[in-house]
């Protein structure tokens, strides 16, 4: 899309401009997520989710109709500002089911998000430029010929319409557990006195949440691994479609779509069948450490993929993509669980809003930085130290190692607030 908007003067500059389009959405979301969380705590989860879906329908459609680079940048930013559902959805997931199923509920949230991050680019890969790919169906003079990236955006907007209709049957959960918290027994009073520290961490308003170190340490890790995840997503597509002379794979957008679609299918099976077993068998933070350690050699192997070809290349790329996205979704699910365990229900959406705000800042930085580093790496193919894309994947591993270090004390503190 950046290429066809003719903002980049050289091929190597496409990653630079693409990074800022990706970052604009996250910058917009960073400004508003905490506010949306507070609104959801006061007025309910459902109204915020409905408003967000309406915004997706409007601004995502306009993004597909972008006439120039600046329109694309602004519509993505406005979509981010109006994107208030992520914090309330996480709070909703823990409230709509019994506590023993919280890990499964949050796994479903992370799974749906992870699959969206896979299937979304796959939709783009298959449906972008339809007049060129499917001339027998779409003519060059049609709206899909004049706006070659409108069709995938329209499909996403239609999915948002379906989700909006589904919201009619959503029950509100904001006050779902109020009746359970009224307990005047002596045991309850003694327990409340014993849990003063936990209550202080959970209650006292939005500002009090910043003093809740179990929450803030989980959010810090969430931001680090989210930054690495988004930077990887930005780099993977740019790297896959770049020419082999620049260290890429020379994939078409359809090839990238095939890889991401396959990863999405296996990711769904993993989240539904394998992750619940891991969540019960392995301590959460131990699971994150194991995933981080396995990610390091996986990312380090990517620059060597261009030496392969044919079936072997597709097999290796599909396996690596699935493993990387599996690792990402696993860590995000764990941190969602830890963040929701660290606070009480009355501030849960606000806590998730703060997490989304801080995470959005890191995700806003990630595409821009990744795009800049990727463009720089393509210009240093013959460097003696970390030539070409070796530099890009090395930088991704720097964040992986940083996240691994932050899973240990004194950076990380485990906590649990009363329901």
TrEMBL record:
Transmembrane helix recorded as keyword: yes
Domain Major facilitator superfamily (MFS) profile: from-to ranges: 1-415
Transmembrane segment boundaries: 14-36, 48-67, 104-127, 147-170, 219-239, 259-279, 286-305, 311-338, 350-376, 391-412
InterPro entries: MFS, MFS_dom, MFS_trans_sf
The keyword Transmembrane appears for this protein: yes
Pfam family, one: MFS_1
Name used for this protein in its record: Major facilitator superfamily (MFS) profile domain-containing protein
Species in which this protein is naturally found: Urochloa decumbens
């Amino acid at each position: 899309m950046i290429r066809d908007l003719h903002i980049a003067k050289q091929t190597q500059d496409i990653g630079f401009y693409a990074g800022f389009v990706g970052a604009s959405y996250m910058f917009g979301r960073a400004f508003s997520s905490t506010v949306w969380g507070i609104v959801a705590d006061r007025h309910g989860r459902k109204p915020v989710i409905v408003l967000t879906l309406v915004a997706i329908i409007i601004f995502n459609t306009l993004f597909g109709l972008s006439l120039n680079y600046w329109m694309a940048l602004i519509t993505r930013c406005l979509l981010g500002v109006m994107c208030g559902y992520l914090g309330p959805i996480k709070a909703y997931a823990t409230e709509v089911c019994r506590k023993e199923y919280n890990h499964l509920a949050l796994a479903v949230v992370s799974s749906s998000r992870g699959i969206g991050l896979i299937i979304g680019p796959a939709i783009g890969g298959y449906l972008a430029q339809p007049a060129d790919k499917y001339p027998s169906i779409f003519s060059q003079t049609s709206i899909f010929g004049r706006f070659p990236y409108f069709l995938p955006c329209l499909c996403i907007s239609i999915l948002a319409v379906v989700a909006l209709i589904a919201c009619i049957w959503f029950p509100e959960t904001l006050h779902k557990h109020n009746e359970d918290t009224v307990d005047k027994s002596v045991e309850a009073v003694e327990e409340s006195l014993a849990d003063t520290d936990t209550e202080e961490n959970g209650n006292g308003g939005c500002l009090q949440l910043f003093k809740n170190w179990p929450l803030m340490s989980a959010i810090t890790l969430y931001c680090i691994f989210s930054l690495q995840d988004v930077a990887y997503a930005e780099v993977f597509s740019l790297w896959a479609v770049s020419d082999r002379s620049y260290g890429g794979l020379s994939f078409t957008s359809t090839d990238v779509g095939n890889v991401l679609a396959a990863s999405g299918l296996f990711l769904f099976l993993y989240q539904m069948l394998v992750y619940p077993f891991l969540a019960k068998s392995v301590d959460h933070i131990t699971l994150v450490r194991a995933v981080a350690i396995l990610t390091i050699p996986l990312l380090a192997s990517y620059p060597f993929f261009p030496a392969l070809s044919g079936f072997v290349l597709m097999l290796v790329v599909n396996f690596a993509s699935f493993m990387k996205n599996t690792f990402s979704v696993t860590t995000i699910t764990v941190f969602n669980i830890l963040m929701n365990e660290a606070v009480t229900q009355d501030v849960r959406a606000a806590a998730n809003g703060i997490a989304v705000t801080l995470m959005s800042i890191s995700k806003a930085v990630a595409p821009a930085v990744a795009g800049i580093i990727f463009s720089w790496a393509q210009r240093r193919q013959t460097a003696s130290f970390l030539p070409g894309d070796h530099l890009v994947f090395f930088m991704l591993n720097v964040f992986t190692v940083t996240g691994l270090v932050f899973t240990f004390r004194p950076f990380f503190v485990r906590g649990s607030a009363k329901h």
